[in-house]
Design brief:
Blueprint lengths: L4 E6 L1 H6 L5 H17 L2 E3 L9 E4 L17 E9 L5 E9 L11 E8 L6 E6 L1 H19 L6 E5 L3 H13 L5 E5 L3 H15 L2 E5 L2 H7 L2 E4 L7 E3 L9 E4 L3 E3 L1 H5 L2 E4 L2 H14 L2 H5 L5 H8 L10 E2 H6 L12 E4 L4 H17 L4 E6 L6
Parallel strand pairs: 1-7, 8-9, 8-11, 9-10, 11-13, 12-14, 13-17, 15-16, 15-17
Antiparallel strand pairs: 1-18, 2-4, 3-4, 4-5, 5-6, 6-7
Helix pairs in contact: 2-3, 2-4, 2-12, 3-4, 3-12
Amino acid sequence: MGKRTEFLYLSEPDTIAAGVLDAARSVDVLEEVFKLVSQGDYLMGGANHNNHGMTIIFPKETPFPNMPVAGPDRRFAAMPAYLGGRFDVCGNKWYGSNAANTEKGLPRSVLTLMLNDKDTGEPLGLLSANLISAARTGAVPGVAARHLAKKDPEVCAVIGCGAINKACMTAIATQMKKLRKVICFDLFLNKAQEFAAWVKETTGAETEASDDLAGVVRAGEVISVAASRLKPLHLESSWLQKGSLLMLTGPAKGDEALWTGTKIVFDNTKLQEAYVEDAISSGDKEGYYAGVIGGPIYSLIDQGKLPPLNQGTSIGDVILGTKPGRQSEDDRIIFVTCGMAVYDVAWGYEVLENARKKSIGQKLVLWESPEQA
């Protein structure tokens, strides 16, 4: 007789009941992840073990009537990873994305996460992953705020007032214990006003909406950027006050001094190196750089104006104390994050374990006895 295999299915409401929206806990879990990454106890896709994932990009034209064609945010992607430590599990986040989804009452991206036994490959859990992905995305700047912000910052600036920055602000607020004011900027002032109202309701902080990008950046002690990839904003070094922390969860352009005159900390320098490898293999390195968060940094490294990535600092190094982070209250720091599948695996694993303890979810049987055993 072969081995019976079952796994737990968690719908979106199930993940909520299992704590997926616990922002403070997600920051703690992601801090664990960064330690493991800096210690090397993880694997992701590709020969370099550090690829973001494998993506299907649709062509602009096709002779096949049923094949999708390119559109805003239209793609499919698989993001596999193994994460060690107490997690010791493999997983894959799978998603389809299409900006037109919103017209159908759907999120732009529809995501699921499968977690698997590292040895047998058996499924352990299949989870609705939109909230998992949002929470882990927000938790990353939350970790950065914990370890890289100056002592007791009071003013947070939000650049780009969409769903991503809502997740970021939720996590950041758990780390800014003396948060007093949040200033919001968006290319559409009404979105900034709506975001400011949400922040005031959820945190109790004083809020302000503004269409003055320079003024908002100047006011921020902690600055969260999650603006559109289609229209990256241009920031000036002179706008950053002493001691500020600029966190890039979305792309931004800037004058040369913005990058050369600040300390840069990455989520994972090896991931950034993998992006550069992809840029080279694309045949259009500068064009590739233009579409990713660390692009301006890579260009300056190529020009010899910044040290190579293998000499850079990952936030896990800072957490472990193997490399310095903030060394002065006057330091200006930029934190760059591009997203890694290990984030989803870790937070998904935490949610799955909570669900098991609370008897949440539906058990599904893969087979009573495998036909091919």
